[in-house]
Design a protein that fits this description.
By secondary structure, the chain is of the alpha+beta class. 27% of the residues lie in helices and 20% in strands.
Length: 235
């Protein structure tokens, strides 16, 4: 996404008074201020795909990008929480705010959803986390429950996969299950350099890396960040 596209995209976001996005990390007014600052910085050069930036202009562009990513992640979270696997509901929330699938590919909204499955099974797909070339492990948890919106009392052992889709079969028809997921971003490193800490979203989490570049965990603390639960009736 170019700087110009980023500014236009940001100015199209509508957060004020939204019934679902009630506590965004940046308000609509704050986003507009960041976008108009970049507009003023670059003037007619804003449409240049290879524009040269001063140090201050780069600071302003970076501030806008961070805010846009934070708001986009937040909107996806609240839309997923309301949708509970229903794509149409997710799209309604995202489209109303302005985070739509009609935007450039890098800004495509991501949804945790249940897909059509064979009898006795379920099929879920989760948002792709991380960047190209970066390893990510997806942890899928599911458990049988008594009714929708009732958290499973017992979760099956986590299923760790390098892909964003999971299909499970062998369940009795009519069974209600809850499904959740977490994404673990692999630390970036080379044979000649230590691992580096990564920026994660509200659902994904980076492997904890200390100052020495080593993975460091705390006893008794689960560092995974799980999504909201979606409930599925097995066909």
């Amino acid at each position: 996404m170019s700087i110009y596209e980023e500014v236009v995209f940001t100015l199209g976001i509508k957060l004020t008074g939204d019934p679902d996005a009630t506590a965004p990390p940046y308000t609509q007014a704050q986003l507009q201020t960041l976008a108009t600052t970049v507009q003023a910085d670059l003037g007619s050069r804003i449409t240049d795909p290879h524009v040269t930036l001063t140090d201050q202009q780069q600071v302003d562009v970076d501030a806008l990008s961070r805010a846009l990513i934070a708001v986009k992640n937040y909107v996806e979270q609240v839309a997923n929480a309301k949708a509970k696997g229903n794509r149409a509901v997710f799209d309604t929330v995202a489209d109303r705010i302005g985070i739509t699938s009609k935007q450039p590919r890098k800004q495509h909204p991501r949804v945790f959803e249940s897909l059509p499955a064979e009898a006795g099974g379920f099929h879920v797909r989760v948002p792709s986390e991380g960047t190209r070339g970066q390893g990510t492990t997806y942890y899928f948890d599911y458990g049988i429950t008594t009714a929708k919106n009732v958290m499973p009392a017992i979760w099956q052992k986590s299923i760790a996969l390098p892909v964003t889709e999971l299909i499970v079969t062998g369940l009795p028809s009519g069974t209600i299950i809850g499904v959740r997921y977490a994404a673990l971003l692999h630390p970036q490193h080379t044979p000649k350099s230590d691992a580096k800490a990564l920026l994660a979203s509200k659902v994904s989490v980076a492997v904890p890396v200390n100052k020495a570049g080593k993975v460091s965990l705390t006893h008794g603390v689960d560092f995974l960040h799980y999504s909201d639960i979606i409930y599925i009736t097995i066909p």
